[in-house]
Every structure is written in C-alpha cells, then in structure tokens.
Amino acid sequence: MASNQQTYDEQVRVLQERFPRASTKHLTRLLQKHAGDIDQVRARLVQRNFRSNKWDSLEERFGTTVTSLQQEIPSAQSLKRIRLLRLMESFSGDVDAVRKVLQKVEERDHEVNADRRASRRERREELKSKYATELAELTQAGINVNRPCTLRQLEKSQGDVNKVIEKMSHRREKKEKRAELNTKYASQIAQLEADGIEIKNKRCLAHLLEKADGQVDVAKQLITEWKEKKG
C-alpha cells in the first residue's frame, strides 16, 4: 500500500507540473479511479481544460447577452447556461435569431404544460377516489395527504399504507440531513457564492462540500467536474 501511495505521489508531482491548478487530492483520486494510469488521467485533464477554456471563451463573448436574455425571456431561465452560450455561438451572436428560438420554445412549453396540468388534475382525482380509505389512514398517521407525492407513493406501493409511511419517514430524514449539512457548511457555501460559483440546486453545494471534507478548493474542483458531466 505504501508503495502504491509513493507511486501516486510521484505521479501527482508530474501531473501538477502540467496542471498546477489541480489539487493533490483531486489528482490522487483520479489516479486511483484509473488504476494509476497517468496517461488516462492526463487525457482526462486535457479534455477538461479544453471544455473549461471553451466555456470561458463563450462567456467572454456572449455572457452579458445571455444574462440579458435570461432576464427577458422566462423560458431561457430553464435552460443550462452553456446551452444558451452554444446557441449564441451557433447563430454567430445574432441576438434576434436566438430570441426567436427561445420564444418558440416558450410557446411550445406553454402548450405542453397546459395539457399536462389538465391531465394531472384528472389523474389526482382518480387516485383520491381509488385510495380514499388509505388516505384516511395516512391522515391519522400524521401524513400530509394534500401533497401530490403522497398519491404517487400510494400508487407505487399499490395502496400499502405501511410502505408509504416508511418512505415518507425516510424522505423526512433526508430533508433533516440536508438541513444539517447546510448549517454545518454555511460559511463555505457563503464563500463559494462570494467567489461567483453559480449552481441552481443549492442542495448540491452542501453535498459536494461534505464529499470534499469541507475544503472549498476541492469543492470547486468537484463542481467543475459535475458541470462538465451535465454538459
């Protein structure tokens, strides 16, 4: 084991000469993941740097315009920022062309969502009638039966009230755990936000900080990797 660690340490030093911004912990983790194959790790880091540089380049060219579009058109807010940047690039920065595309997306989504809402309402009424007895039992157990997820859980569990109570308890425990992590890493989360780290799902920040043992620099690396995977 000591020999393996010594090998990893030597490989980390070699990699840090090429990628000085990568943390020792991150490089060691990559080497372990790829069974010490330094060429695979190097190739992955090169690819990541290329994506990062591409992102930075697009941000520099179209960042301000994309931000304006996100504020102007509601549908743009639901799209990943990198997708909007690539859209701007594909239309050579033609704002009007991109605006038309986004407006079409918004119109389509509005029609689809209207149909879905009507369908969901009908489905909820069917389930309420089907599981009237089970809903009464859950109410007595202190479960909020007005939440749509309660009906979904009943349907998945084929009306098994005990299973639903168990799942709801597990969900509550997870919620409490997230709240605990948010409190534990409140200062680190504030630091990441102050450093300009943008992430829509705030719950992920606490989870990534837990994975990074509370180290902000390591968390930044994990966030970068996570964003790259999401594209």
What's the SSE blueprint?
Elements: H1 2-18, H2 24-33, H3 38-72, H4 74-77, H5 81-90, H6 95-130, H7 132-140, H8 148-156, H9 161-184, H10 186-194, H11 202-211, H12 216-230
Structure description:
There is one protein chain. The protein has helices at 2-18, 24-33, 38-72, 74-77, 81-90, 95-130, 132-140, 148-156, 161-184, 186-194, 202-211, 216-230. The chain is 81% helix and 0% strand. With 231 residues, it is mainly α. It is built from 12 helices and no strands. It folds into 3 domains: 1-93, no CATH class; 103-159, no CATH class; 163-230. The longest helix is centred in the middle third of the chain and has 36 residues, at 95-130.
Main pleated sheet:
none
Overall 3D form: flat
Helix content: over 70%
Total domain units: 3
Gyration radius, rounded: 24 Å
Strand content: under 5%
Number of strands: 0
End-to-end C-alpha gap: 36 Å
What tags apply to this protein structure?
231 residues; mainly alpha; 3 domains; 12 helices; 81% helix; 0% strand
Short description:
The protein is mainly α and 231 residues long. The protein contains 12 helices and no strands.
